[in-house]
Automatic annotation (TrEMBL):
This is Chromosome partitioning protein ParA. CDD domains: ParAB_family. It comes from the Bacteria. PANTHER family: COBQ_COBB_MIND_PARA NUCLEOTIDE BINDING DOMAIN-CONTAINING PROTEIN, P-LOOP CONTAINING NUCLEOSIDE TRIPHOSPHATE HYDROLASE.
Amino acid sequence: MPHKVISIATSKGGAGKTTLCISLASAFAEQGGRIALVDTDPQGSLTSWAEKADLPESIAVFSESTDENRVIDLIEAASQTYHLTIVDVQGTANTLAHTAMAFSDLVIIPMKASEFDARAAFDTLTAVRAVSRSRRSEIDFMPVLNCLSPAIASRTAQAIREGFEEAGIAVQTGLSEREAFRCISAYGGSLFQLSDSQAPGLTKAKAEALDFAGLVADRLGISQTQAA
Ligand SMILES: Nc1ncnc2c1ncn2[C@@H]1O[C@H](COP(=O)(O)OP(=O)(O)OP(=O)(O)O)[C@@H](O)[C@H]1O
Ligand SMILES: [Mg+2]
């Protein structure tokens, strides 16, 4: 199985990048995959999550928020041991972000259902296209509407989807807004290590994370269990 690299990036803060990184890693690890998470965000959210609880042996977290050569080293080293590397990327207008994108097979661009998030997502995919041009090969990207209410259809989300479609870009659906996803950062550990008493709605959250991992695996051209 070839090693694949995913970056999760947007220039907008709080769109759910770190939570998506953890949920995807949790879902792939649950299927038997070995996952390296690379924290390039100076805030260090992934790193502090990793310190909160013992992680499954199949998930490892590395951090480097200043030196892009070290990020490349980490990705290359991870390719020897892990099936998948997921990079948490802060912002898009910095060298580290461009480096992470340049080494990625897929850039996931999360946005909440807000016009501000949608603009940031569009700026981010423009940045991915620019990096594709400079490396002279296409980097796949996937804008994702994230943190939607599971109960109420959002008109803003629909308008955002249509706006992207007019530009010929399909928008996927990420994780719904669920307390269980919020609990990941509170308790640490994989989504699949949480208990029902810690995380309300955990069953639905786990199913959603697995579905999203399936979508990502399809996009990468691997079957979800092949990531194992
Ligand atoms: N699917 C979700 N359901 C409920 N809460 C969520 C979900 N995804 C993220 N959150 C919450 O939203 C906040 C922002 O999420 P997160 O830290 O993952 O975003 P981020 O894009 O990494 O932010 P930053 O730009 O600060 O790095 C956190 O409090 C997180 O718990
Ligand atoms: Mg973050």
